[in-house]
Specification:
It is built from five helices and four strands. By secondary structure, the chain is an alpha+beta fold. Strand 2 (69-75) and strand 3 form a beta hairpin.
């Protein structure tokens, strides 16, 4: 998929519409019930990264005020692209962009969740 504003908007909309509890680490399921994007940041950012590739976006993470890593991507110009930022703004908090550092996709179960959402999103986009 070409990295354009229109494609980015479409992809984010499809990602957000397909976040589900089965994509969460078990420790975040309960908290996610009252904050629908909480716990999905690595998975959502990972799908953006897999879709657009490392020439267009880089993965970042930053430790938040609760000691939890938050994940997002940035484009070549340094613009922050964060589909799950509302998990902070909806609770009066700010994402930890100021503490951001480049990072790669996590492995094991995290990678399985990214791949599961990536496959689901692609099946919707390319119907």
């Amino acid at each position: 998929m070409e990295f354009t504003k229109a494609n980015l908007d479409i992809l984010i909309k499809v990602i957000l519409a397909n976040l589900s509890p089965d994509l969460l680490p078990k420790k975040w399921v309960e908290r996610n019930k009252s904050n629908p994007t909480f716990g999905h940041c690595h998975t959502a950012a990972g799908v953006l990264y897999l879709t657009f590739g490392p020439k267009c976006v880089k993965m970042y993470r930053g430790l938040d005020d609760e000691g939890i890593y938050h994940w997002w991507v940035q484009d070549k110009e340094g613009n922050i692209i964060d589909p799950t930022a509302d998990q902070y703004y909806s609770t009066g908090r700010t994402p930890p962009y100021d503490k951001g550092e480049k990072a790669g996709l996590l492995g094991f179960d995290y990678r399985k969740r990214v791949n599961k959402l990536y496959e689901k999103v692609n099946s919707i986009l390319w119907q």
